[in-house]
Design a protein that fits this description.
single chain, 291 residues, Rossmann fold, 2 domains, 7 helices, 7 strands, 61% helix, 14% strand
């Protein structure tokens, strides 16, 4: 679940980067489109002002091979011809360079803009779909976590009383509104003591509380085997016997591998595997099956 959530988060970040890039490209296309529209509008105004014709009419005449600016002139009058030529030259200079591809470029930019808008729409829809899937994953994760937390908490209270011979223990979420990111506080009350945080307990009581929580988790979802390394080191004789008895009870579902120096714990084992050194520098494994 968490891996899928991370993958969805990565895809969501990637889609957001793509959306930002598309926004930038669309902004550039809008600027170019506005510039082309301005050029076309200016050219149309020049055509109306200087030629008395619209831009579309001038383009049609040029395409037909006609001269839209030619007016009747007496070719025998040299001065009149020179004056007309000079007038046409001034008009051409005032009009400046004419981009006859402006309309085609405008159409191309409009097509590009439509394409980018479609891409942006696809990205937005993909982001919405990803966020919806992520919300569903979080909802299911919260439900499963809450179910597991409640079950383990109930087992923890039972195992705590069995190991301590009474008292009470429970887990508390520090942020119940956001259980998936909330910390967990362990409250313990051994027999004859007041309810307090686990950090205020003695070393042996902390060990017993940790063992109770571990066994509570195993009750909720047993594992094929469990390795415990000297967890009984700080326990007194009475608590060691309770711990060994609890391990024996749960060994039907889980194989426990205990590393210990305590004889009481060894007596509860089904088999012992010891390492000895009969000669300096040479280790020897000795195994004994008790049950």
């Amino acid at each position: 679940m968490y891996q899928r959530a991370d993958e969805f988060n990565a895809r969501l970040d990637e889609r957001r980067v793509q959306e930002r890039e598309l926004r930038e490209q669309m902004a550039q296309q809008e600027v170019q489109r506005a510039q082309l529209l301005s050029d076309a509008r200016h050219l149309g105004e020049m055509c109306l002002s200087e030629l008395g014709q619209s831009l579309e009419e001038v383009i049609a005449l040029v395409a037909a091979g006609e001269n839209p600016v030619e007016t009747p002139t007496d070719v025998g009058d040299a001065q009149a011809v020179k004056g007309r030529v000079q007038e046409l030259r001034l008009q051409l200079e005032e009009m400046g360079p004419i981009n006859m591809m402006a309309l085609e470029e405008l159409e191309a930019q409009q097509e590009r803009l439509e394409f980018l808008e479609d891409q942006r729409r696809d990205v937005i829809e993909s982001i919405a779909s990803t966020e919806k899937a992520l919300d569903e994953i979080k909802r299911r994760s919260r439900r499963r976590f809450s179910d597991a937390f409640e079950a383990i908490n109930a087992h923890f209270g039972q195992v705590f009383q069995e190991l301590f011979g009474g008292g009470q223990g429970r887990m508390v979420l520090l942020d119940e509104e956001n259980p998936l990111e909330s910390g967990i506080d362990i409250i313990a009350q051994p027999p004859g003591k007041r309810l307090q945080n686990i950090m205020l307990l003695s070393g042996g009581e902390k060990s017993m509380t940790a063992i109770a929580l571990l066994l509570a988790i195993f009750r909720y979802r047993p594992s094929p085997f469990c390795v415990l390394d000297e967890v009984d080191a700080q326990l007194d004789e009475v608590n060691v016997r309770r711990f060994a008895k609890k391990i024996e009870e749960m060994s039907a579902q889980t194989q426990f591998v205990l590393i210990t120096h305590n004889k009481t714990t060894m007596q509860a084992a089904g088999a012992l595997h010891g390492v000895t050194m009969e000669e300096p520098g040479i280790s020897k494994l000795v195994s004994v099956r008790l049950k």
